[in-house]
Amino acid sequence: MRIEVNNVSVKFKNRxxxxxxxxxxxxxxxxxxxxxxxxGKTTLLSLLASFREPSSGSISIEGxxxxxxxxxxxxxxxxxxxxYKDETxxxxxxxxxxxxxxxxxxxxxxxxxxxxxxxxxxxxxxQFSKGMQSAVSVTIGLASRAPITxxxxxYNGMDAPTREIFYQELLEDQSEHPRIIxxxxxxxxxxxxxxxxxxxVNIGELVLQEEYESLVTxxxxxxxxxxxxxxxxxxxxxxxxxxLGNTKSVxxxxxxxxxxxxxxxxxGLEVGPISLQELFIHLTEGEE
Length: 288
Ligand SMILES: Nc1ncnc2c1ncn2[C@@H]1O[C@H](COP(=O)(O)OP(=O)(O)OP(=O)(O)O)[C@@H](O)[C@H]1O
Fold this sequence. Notes:
Keywords: ATP-binding, Nucleotide-binding, Transport. Helices cover about 35% and strands about 30% of the residues. The protein is an alpha/beta fold. About 35% of the residues are buried.
């Protein structure tokens, strides 16, 4: 599947929620869509899921406009924090309904997920806790195996062990049934290992789209005796500093040259990767 977003803006009254966004997604990978609160993640994802139209610009999925395109939407699944507070149906009936309109739905896999999430089959969904309701949405989202599956902060309300089950299942099922998965989040440090590629939106603008592996080489952590670290990083763009006794660790933004790496080695300094969380904070801070 190929998603193309060209110069897309969305305006609410006279405020832009998205400003001139352009990108392409066309590989069966897990894409992380990162942004702070109000950055525009949900607005962007709801365009892809045909929930709204852009104010300007264009979107195409497999060459077609997704808006009100029922045929195309069979291939796109948007998983969000659905509130089941009025849902009197139980899980069994709900899954049977989903099975009718989701062409790739795998009932056996849904049952497997229900067991892992320990969800009751016969209780009305409105009696489920918040975390259990999220687990229902995630179960439907994963078992639908839509070629484009979008999780918009779908983990909300799940406790840490339940989120871990979600992440494990996501990785396993994505490798067995490759498809485009887009996940929006601000739980960056917890979820970074899931992402093949990362998109960062900040105040309605796309600030970055890059492979995870190459992104984390955009910076480095330098660790060693405080004085040596200080002199090594003094002319560099420093993001964060930690010190324990005389051992200091400084995160820097910017790729190190071979000469710089050798110089660090010669001084006995340890050069490590930077975390996506550090980069995320750096790229989205102080611009409000
Ligand atoms: N229906 C609407 N009417 C007016 N403004 C809106 C509407 N929906 C979203 N916005 C505004 O658009 C901006 C982007 O909102 P959006 O929900 O896309 O952010 P988000 O990145 O998903 O945030 P969060 O992480 O907090 O869920 C915000 O400033 C929000 O207030």
